[in-house]
Amino acid sequence: SDIPSEYRAEVDRLFIQYLTRICSNLDATDNKGDPIHQQLMAKKMQKLDESTDFRPFKFRIQAFTAAFLEELSQNGYPEEKIPMKKVRNYLWRQPLILRFNEDGKKAKSKGNHIWNVEAKKTANGWEFRPFVRKIAGSPPPVAYCGIQWSWKPRVWDPQACWHNIPVEYSSPSLPLWLSWKDDVLSGTPPPNAESCEITTHAKFTLDGQEGLLTRTFFLNIVPPAVVSADPSFAAFAQRPSIVPPRRSVSDSTLPAWFVIVSISASSMFMRMRIVG
C-alpha cells in the first residue's frame, strides 16, 4: 500500500521541499547525525558543483529515509498518520529516485547500496529529472549483408528489479529477414536488404496491470560489395561501438616472416617464435 490519496499531493510537495533542502546542503544529516550524502572525492565534487547541467546526487538510504520521515513529522504527518512502511513504499516507487542501474543491479557506491537523484541548479532552487522505465540495451546500428545481426533487449526499471517479470517482445512490422525468437531479434540481411526503422514493443503485466513500452531505432544496412571488399567487416559486425579497422599501407608491405614475442602465463618467460 502507498500514501493515502488524501495526503498524496502534500507528501509530493514535501518530498520536493526535502530534496531541495538536502541538495543545497552537502553536509545534511538525519537526527542521529548520520550524513545523508554519500561523499565523493573533492575534485569530482568541485567539477559537479561547477556544472550547469543535471548532476547526480548519491544518498545513503537509511539516513535519507530517516530524514524524510522527520520532514513529514515536522509538517504534520507523523508515523501515526502515515506509517513508516507506507513512506518506504512511496520512496521505493518515487520516479525521482534511481534504485537500480540499467544492468538490473541495485545502485552502489564505495560498496554500499545508495539511491541516486539527478538535479540541475536553477534560479529558484533545483530542477529534478525523473527516471522512467524503458527498453534498454544497445542494438547494433549496422547490419552487414550475409552476416547475422542480433539484439537482445531488456526492460530497465529504475525503481524495481525485473529479473523475474515476464516480458513479451514484438514488432508491428519487420523486414522479411528479421524475426523475434526467445526475446532476441535476429536475422541475416540478404543482398537486396535496405536500411530501415525498427520499432520494438515490450508487453508485460505488473501488479495486475498491463503495461507497454516502445522503442524505435534506425538500422543501417551495409551492401554486399562493401562486405566482400573487406572481410574484416565480419569480425566486427556485432560490435556496435567498434568501427572496422582501417588498413595501414604497411600491412601489404610486411615481409613474409616476422617475430612474435609472447609471454607464457605459466612460466612467465619470454619466448620468440618465427612465423613464416
Description:
By secondary structure, the protein is α+β, with helices and mostly antiparallel strands. The chain is 22% helix and 30% strand. The protein has 6 helices and 15 strands. It has helices spanning 5-23, 42-50, 61-74, 84-92, 224-229, 233-236; strands at residues 55-60, 108-109, 112-122, 125-129, 134-136, 142-144, 149-151, 154-156, 167-170, 179-181, 184-187, 196-206, 209-222, 258-263, 270-275. It starts with a helix and ends with a strand.
Task: Write down the overall geometry.
Answer: elongated
- Share of residues in strands: 25-35%
Question: Can you count the helices?
Answer: 6
Helicity, in percent? 10-25%
Instruction: Decide which structural class fits the backbone.
Output: alpha+beta
Rg over C-alpha atoms, rounded to the nearest angstrom: 26 Å
Output the helix-strand order.
Answer: HHEHHEEEEEEEEEEEEHHEE
Q: Ranges with pLDDT <50 over ≥5 residues? A: 240-276
Largest β sheet strand count, sense and barrel closure: 4 strands, antiparallel
Euclidean distance between termini CA atoms: 73 Å
Report mean pLDDT, rounded to a whole number: 82
What's the count of strands? 15
